[in-house]
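Example record used in the benchmark description.
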Amino acid sequence: MASGDVKMPRPVYVIFANSGSIDQTSNMVSIFDVIEIVNVFKKVSDSTSYLIPQKTNRITAVWMRETVDKVADKFQGQLACVDPENAELFVSEVIEFSFEFPFYRFASQVFLVGFNTLGTHLIEARLRRAGEEGWTWRQTFPFIVQEGILPSTIPTEAPPG
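Model output (structure tokens):
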């Protein structure tokens, strides 16, 4: 069944960031340092791959229940990172859920160790009804991977004036 044939849960947003938090009382989300560009450095021993500073990042993806979706309806979701050549750099486990509330939120910590190519990468949030084979719905967050300047090569002179 094509996604145009049935109403789907509505994609709200997917964001790739350095960190975030969820308030214990209000359940409100705060996202810090949204990642639009990742500066990478070429490995000396392997000129075909790129390293990034080692840190954990956060992906937050939110879907909204449609009026035709019932609380008992089961869905499955997954998060992934896809490079410009359509290779998957990571894929999360498949999570099964139902819309007990109007919104369903995936929040996942990811640890990226490097990239094989430069260019526009995608964080992809995937969704399907439980029992379906392929991913019916997707929402994406693009970010650019570019070769950076090593800190030791940045000029330290103060600008004139």
